[in-house]
Specification:
- There is one protein chain.
- The chain is mainly α and 122 residues long.
- It has one domain (13-117): Phosphoglycerate mutase-like (Rossmann fold).
- The chain has helices at 23-30, 32-40, 61-66, 74-84, 99-121.
- The protein starts with 22 loop residues before the first helix and ends with a helix.
């Protein structure tokens, strides 16, 4: 059996404000060239998702409970505290990612956590 590893670092790419839109819809709204730049560009990020969007991972309680390896976001915490009228702490989760950002997040996790665990367990 293969072990199941749960980590936000293994999530798919965060497409920001494009999350939930079809490829066709993105191309129609923003043009083919921009669509290709976002999709294939190594350092090009799509537009950021709003902190209050249902697509922002910071609005998913699983991240609040289980993510231990991210810094706290002062600005997100202040915005949420004002919005909800009570003190809240929020992690600094990505609002958009380039392919490079995905590599920067996943490769170290793979090399420092998954590979050593696989070697130790044989």
């Amino acid at each position: 059996w293969l072990p199941i590893i749960k980590s936000w670092r293994l999530n798919e790419r965060m497409y920001g404000d494009l999350t939930g839109l079809s490829k066709k819809m993105v191309a129609q709204r923003h043009g083919d060239e921009q669509f290709k730049a976002w999709r294939r560009g190594f350092k090009v990020r799509p537009p950021k998702v709003s902190s209050f969007s249902i697509n922002y991972p910071g609005n998913d309680l699983r991240y609040e409970k289980y993510v231990k390896d991210l810094r706290w976001s002062v600005s997100e915490s202040i915005i949420r505290s004002i919005e909800h009228g009570r003190p809240e702490l929020h992690k600094k989760l990505p609002k958009t990612e380039s392919l490079k950002d995905c590599m920067d997040r996943t490769i170290p996790f793979f090399t420092h956590q998954i590979v050593p665990e696989a070697i130790n367990e044989g």
